[in-house]
UniProtKB/TrEMBL annotation:
Predominant localisation class: membrane
Protein name: ABC transporter, ATP-binding protein
Upper classification of the organism: Bacteria, Pseudomonadati, Pseudomonadota, Gammaproteobacteria, Pseudomonadales
Keywords attached to this entry: ATP-binding, Nucleotide-binding, Transport
Superkingdom per UniProt: Bacteria
Family according to the record: Belongs to the ABC transporter superfamily. Macrolide exporter (TC 3.A.1.122) family.
GO molecular function, one term: ATP hydrolysis activity
Keyword S-adenosyl-L-methionine: no
SUPFAM superfamilies in UniProt: P-loop containing nucleoside triphosphate hydrolases
Amino acid sequence: MNRELVFQTRGLTKIYDQGEVEVRALRGVDLDLYAGELVVMLGASGSGKSTLLNILGGLDVPTGGEVRYRDVDLSNADDRALTRYRRDHVGFVFQFYNLIPSLTARENVAAVTEIARSPMTPESALDLVGLGNRMDHFPAQLSGGEQQRVAIARAVAKRPEVLLCDEPTGALDSTTGVLVLAALEKANRETGTTTVIITHNASIAGMGDRVITLSDGNISGEQRNLRRQDPTSLTW
């Protein structure tokens, strides 16, 4: 595996002020992520995994500590710099698909490729996730799993260096979820995009190069898989 460092966090903290109560979402996280790897981050609700993902993606900023993307210090970046970082380097896949109902699958992907620097064609991205025969269907004509795969195609079509996935199977049944995970694994394998999948589902762990467990706002464990498991062989 390419050991080129993509992300490095040191002493990363995040505190949310909720009136008289402070919520410490992250408590001094030290983390290194490398080019091309697929990392599964496990944690229960409230463990800090979504907060960490949002900071890595430039959707949020830390309260303290440092987060670097390659040689860029994201901890001190302003809104304009973070917007440029998200546009040029990051693809997001969320639990809910956020597709535009009035656009076909092809057009939903094209909405991103038209503003990207060196994108795939929408057709290539949809082929990658196994939807070559569903390109001209509207979201209402697609199953939940197919809609999520359109969302994956939209995220990878701009050829991001980083793909960040927040509970991508959370709204799906196990059979459909496996198809979505297989699409993410294929995208990682064929494009070399550093991929982070956060989930509370420990059954997903086997598909990652590394499994990082978060608890109470910090990393509580790490496991390296010598061989990634085929997502279609996962049992939930």
